[in-house]
């Protein structure tokens, strides 16, 4: 038996694996939020997953409200995705040549979204990094505008905090990013038109692009105000800058079309560039950026802007993504919406009954819960999100986990559902909520 998992320690526990992991990996994890630092405790090491359920190495089952941070729109180990991927693996896993599945997935994405052409990469970070390079190459300008609280992956120039004044350039958000990397980044408050106008008034002729999450999902869910995305599209066009919507999280997750800025279709604007990831990889490392044909044709080998990847458009990942998107029908989104409505309502009811002040916010099928006084109004930007009560969330999180519900281990993440969240999964969540609400109120 060559399976390194079945031949390993027959009864590892999450605690024992976490200790082993910490000896060989910083913090014991390969992406920081998995470590439970924000909520305390030991992350569960997952052995397997089916449908809406995760099973950890100790044999405990959890309803999964993380869904791999978005990708698992159809739930885990969907039989048709597994069958397609298994067949693809048997044909070989990577050739470093063009293949049919990547053409098919590109056609599917071009079909569903406003992009004319698309280029595949292996992570959302690569997608936004490449989109920015392309925007700079296309416009011949250097400055990038982003919003505080919008996350676009760990791209150096986007790991930036706002500078001291509204339209001043950013400072690095982490050690390891040189000041020179953020010196061309402007970080503005989300949903703040006046700040955007001021930045364009002062630096408009130097701005290559403005990048925004189509709906913010990385400071909790904070939807753009009515018309905000259209306003951004318009001001970019007026100043010759490209409007880049990051749909790594929202794409094919918040809506079927993959185009959360669906109001764009109504208001008559389209982004110049878009980035995708998560759902379109079906649980494999795949992401993409795409957009206007005249912009995309600036990419190598058609144009001068260099961009490449050994595993880009990998046949297994594109097969998984294509199969997932083809199964992502209207019924899937209707189901996820109605399950979300039930869970949002039950969460509000339980927290209200327990006396825990909170606000539930949604964008398409995505939603999250802020522990904050509803009298302060909705959370519209990062400053407001940062004022919410992380301690209450930690108590809430652990009470849910104890009762078999795996929420994101951070107050600033969306809760994700799938088409596999059925009555049994919903009931487990509903049964856990009153206990968790009391814990949050305590
Ligand atoms: N953009 C957005 C909106 C995201 O939510 C994320 C990841 O959560 C990324 C980009 C980065 O994607 P990845 O983690 O695949 O690099």
TrEMBL record:
Q: Which InterPro entries match?
A: 4pyrrol_synth_GluAld_NH2Trfase, Aminotrans_3, Aminotrans_3_PPA_site, PyrdxlP-dep_Trfase, PyrdxlP-dep_Trfase_major, PyrdxlP-dep_Trfase_small
Record-listed N6-(pyridoxal phosphate)lysine modification sites: 278
Cofactor field: pyridoxal 5'-phosphate
Q: What class of enzyme is it?
A: isomerase
Q: Which GO terms describe its biological process?
A: protoporphyrinogen IX biosynthetic process
The record's subcellular locations are: Cytoplasm
Q: Give the record's subunit note.
A: Homodimer.
**Family affiliation:** Belongs to the class-III pyridoxal-phosphate-dependent aminotransferase family. HemL subfamily.
Mind telling me what this protein is named?
Glutamate-1-semialdehyde 2,1-aminomutase
């Amino acid at each position: 038996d060559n399976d390194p998992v079945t031949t390993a320690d027959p009864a590892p526990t999450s605690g024992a694996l976490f200790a082993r992991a910490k000896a060989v990996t910083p913090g014991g994890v390969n992406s920081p939020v998995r470590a439970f630092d924000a909520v305390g405790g030991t992350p569960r090491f997952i052995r397997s997953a089916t449908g809406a359920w995760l099973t950890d190495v100790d044999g405990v089952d959890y309803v999964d409200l993380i869904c791999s941070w978005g990708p698992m729109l159809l739930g885990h180990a969907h039989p048709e995705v597994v069958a397609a991927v298994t067949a693809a693996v048997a044909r070989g896993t990577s050739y470093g040549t063009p293949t049919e599945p990547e053409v098919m997935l590109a056609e599917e994405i071009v079909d569903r979204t406003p992009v004319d052409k698309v280029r595949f990469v292996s992570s959302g970070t690569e997608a936004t990094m490449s989109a920015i390079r392309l925007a700079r190459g296309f416009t011949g300008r250097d400055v990038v505008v982003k919003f505080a609280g919008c996350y676009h992956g760990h791209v150096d120039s986007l790991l930036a905090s706002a500078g001291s004044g509204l339209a001043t350039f950013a400072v690095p958000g982490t050690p390891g990013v040189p000041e020179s990397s953020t010196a061309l980044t402007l970080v503005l408050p989300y949903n703040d038109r006046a700040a955007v106008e001021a930045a364009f008034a002062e630096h408009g002729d130097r701005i290559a692009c403005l990048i925004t999450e189509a709906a913010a999902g990385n400071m909790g869910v904070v939807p753009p105000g009515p018309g905000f995305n259209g306003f951004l599209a318009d001001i970019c066009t007026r100043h010759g800058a490209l409007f880049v919507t990051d749909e790594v999280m929202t794409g094919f997750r918040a809506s079927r079309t993959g185009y959360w800025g669906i109001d764009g279709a109504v208001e008559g604007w389209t982004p110049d560039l878009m980035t995708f990831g998560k759902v379109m990889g079906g649980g494999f490392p795949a992401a993409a950026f795409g957009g206007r044909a005249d912009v995309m044709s600036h990419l190598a080998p058609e144009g001068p802007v260099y961009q490449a990847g050994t595993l880009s458009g990998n046949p297994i990942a594109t097969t998984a993504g294509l199969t997932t998107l083809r199964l992502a029908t209207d019924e899937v989104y209707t189901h996820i919406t109605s399950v979300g409505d039930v869970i949002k309502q039950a969460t509000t009811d339980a927290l209200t009954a327990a006396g825990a002040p909170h606000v539930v916010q949604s964008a398409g099928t995505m939603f999250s819960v802020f522990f904050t006084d509803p009298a302060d109004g909705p959370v519209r930007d990062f400053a407001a999100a940062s004022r919410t009560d992380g301690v209450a969330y930690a108590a809430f999180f652990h009470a849910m986990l104890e009762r078999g519900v795996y929420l994101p281990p951070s107050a600033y993440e969306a809760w994700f559902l799938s088409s596999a969240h059925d009555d049994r999964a919903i009931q487990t969540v509903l049964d856990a909520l009153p206990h968790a609400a009391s814990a949050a109120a305590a």
